Amino acid sequence: MRIAIADDHALFRDSLRSLLEARGHEVVGEAANGREAIEMARRTRPDILLMDLSMPEMGGLEATRQLSSELPSVRIVILTASDDDEALFETLKAGAQGYLLKNLEAEPFFSLLDAAGRGEPALTPALARRLLTEFRKPPEPRVQDLDALTARELEVLELMVEGVTSNVKLGKRLGVSENTVKFHVRNILDKLHLHNRAQAVSHALRRGLVDPDKLRN
Does the CA dihedral 110-115-121-126 come out positive or negative? Predict the structure, then answer.
């Protein structure tokens, strides 16, 4: 994968670049703040942008908002030391594909990075549970969202909330082809005006499109 790094600590960028290149990934650019990250992404169009949150001039949250709107094909994965719930929720709402902590060990890090490359949410089980707990709170009703989705699209959305996010697994659960799954997911994102599957999961739970108490564990 073509990967870019946005972090204000040069030593961390150097170490991360070496680690990524040792695994066969191409590091196409680096940035020390959010403004540089936006300019770099426009220039290099990476597959994944690893974005820190706390940076000078412009932080990762604002940069994520701008890039998710301008360049939705660039998948942004937050890589931060912040274990704050609000940061987790806000960056996913802003369009981030995932949220990883810097103390993560190498194997789960690369596994989740590969998942992000396939368009799946990159969240550790612990962070996913915290996200689900937050979204169990009473949602704001959005009848128009329910009306916009077909029964099959709601079924796809429920499976994604359960954690079934890959096209292969979704296809097996639904008994349809991967191309059909891609068609349904694209329709869901278009109808709800979202950019990626992580946003779809977040939106479904927050807006009450899916009842988490009825989902399988």
Answer: negative
Report the distance separating Cα 91 and Cα 66, nearest Å: 12
- Copy the structure tokens of residue 105: 């060990």
Q: What phi and psi, each to the nearest 5 degrees, are found at residue 23? A: -95, 5
pLDDT digits (tens, 9 = 90+) for 197-208: 888 888 887 777
DSSP label of 212: G
Q: Going from the N-terminus, what domains does the chain have, and what CATH number goes with each?
A: 2-133 (3.40.50.2300), 139-214 (1.10.10.10)
* Angular region, 186: left φ>0, alpha ψ -120 to 50, beta rest: alpha
pTM: 0.65
Would you list the DSSP string of 150-208?
-HHHHHHHHHHHHT--SHHHHHHHHTS-HHHHHHHHHHHHHHHT-SSHHHHHHHHHHTT
Tell the residue number behind the tokens 């779809």, with chain if given: 200
Please name the residue that has the structure tokens 């290099």: 44
| 4, amino acid identity | A
**Which DSSP letter does residue 115 get?**
H
Most confident of the following: 108-112, 120-124, 126-130, 152-156: 108-112
Geometric angle at alpha carbon 103, from 204 and 82, rounded to 5° = 55
| 3-class secondary-structure state, position 50 | strand
